[in-house]
Amino acid sequence: MTRDEIQSKVQDVLAEVLGIDEDEVTPRATLTGDLGAESIDFLDIVFRLEQAFDVKIEQGELFPENLQQDPEYVNDGALTEAGLHALRAKLPHAEIDRIEDDPRLARVGEIFTVDAIVSFVERKLGAAA
Amino acid sequence: MRWLWIDRILALEPGRRLVACKTVSLSEPHLHQHFPADANNPALPIVPGPLVIEGMAQAGGLLAGHARGFVDDVVLAKLRRVELDFEVLPSATIEFDATLANIDDSGASVDGTVRVHDPAWDGPRDMGRVDLMFAHVPPQREGLHVADAFGTLVSASVHAGGLSTEAFSI
Predict the structure, then answer these.
(1) Whose C-alpha in A64, A80, A83, B96 is 20 to 30 A from the C-alpha of B81?
(2) What's the rounded Cα separation, in Å, for the pair B155 and B162?
């Protein structure tokens, strides 16, 4: 499957999950800031991507899990260096650079753009092939 | 679940599908408010749409809870899609046919078909779809626990016949 084909399906999924028009789902749009995703939508996105691409996505594989509970990763409401490093290692598709200068937890949603989801699926399908 | 808005479980295929039903009665007080007569119109007692969604949420929530042995509380988190095509009147029976689409530690999604049997009709009619998402949260011990309500429903459903207790074993 080409990246364009993956992008088209990801657009369908995000438009359906978030109840928005497909033309709003642009590659650089962030899920939370631009597209209005809430926490339960992240689980919905995982479920629908699994169906759309016939893959199994483990918890914490696409979006971070239990980050706030680890004092090594979070201090005073912001990600620590170790937290940023862990995110990069666990979520290579996410755009960590976007929040590096101001890594408050409230901004973590910004690391997930439409492009990041497409990259995740592309990597996932590549690994399965 | 602190109250039941389904009367009976008609079928349970663990981890896959649960069908439940609710017969609507004019003795339910909310029907007298939805809608009362006014100066221009006679009373029109029809089931509020959110209660139809509630019925599917209870059927789907029990299906999801049962699939994991009721280790978590199952909380309605999102209406994925709701399409209800007509009104339901007293004496009709609403059937909630819930299928488990996905489930993991975080939550579950359920696709639901709503069917209505009205004594004035020759047969059942599909009313629409209610697709839902549930979140799994640590169990709250206050009030009725979901498994308690489930137990009451199971007793009634088995007593009615046609269902074995084995299907409900957790």
Answers:
(1) A64
(2) 12
CA-closest candidate to residue A94, choices A123, A120, A126: A120
Do you know the residue count of chain B?
A: 170
Distance of CA B166 to the CA centre of its chain: 22
Are the Cβ atoms of A59 and B104 closer than 8 angstroms? yes
Q: Would you call B166 exposed, middle or buried from its count of C-beta atoms within 10 A (0-12, 13-18, 19+)? A: exposed
Peptide bond into B35 cis (omega under 30): yes
Between CA B36 and CA B8, with CA B23 as vertex, the angle to 5 degrees is 145
Q: Are B116 and B89 contacting, i.e. CB atoms less than 8 angstroms apart?
A: no
Rounded-to-integer distance, Cα A70 and Cα A75, Å: 9
Question: Can you tell me the distance from the alpha carbon of B69 to that of B28, in angstroms, rounded to the nearest whole number?
Answer: 32
This prediction's pTM: 0.89
Q: How far, in Å, CA of A35 to CA of A97, rounded?
A: 20
Contact, A88 vs A98, CB < 8 A? no
In this prediction the ipTM stands at: 0.85
**How far is Cα A54 from Cα A125, in angstroms, rounded to an integer?**
9
Which of A102, A101, A117, A91 is CA-nearest to residue A32?
A: A117
Question: Nearest-CA residue of chain A relative to B79?
Answer: A17
Catalytic choice (B34, B117, B136, B145)? B34
Three-point CA angle A26, A28, A32, nearest 5°:
90
Q: pLDDT tens, B18-67?
A: 999 999 999 999 999 999 999 999 999 999 999 999 999 999 999 999 99
**Adjacency order of strands within the sheet including B93-103:** B8-13, B17-23, B93-103, B107-117, B125-137, B73-84
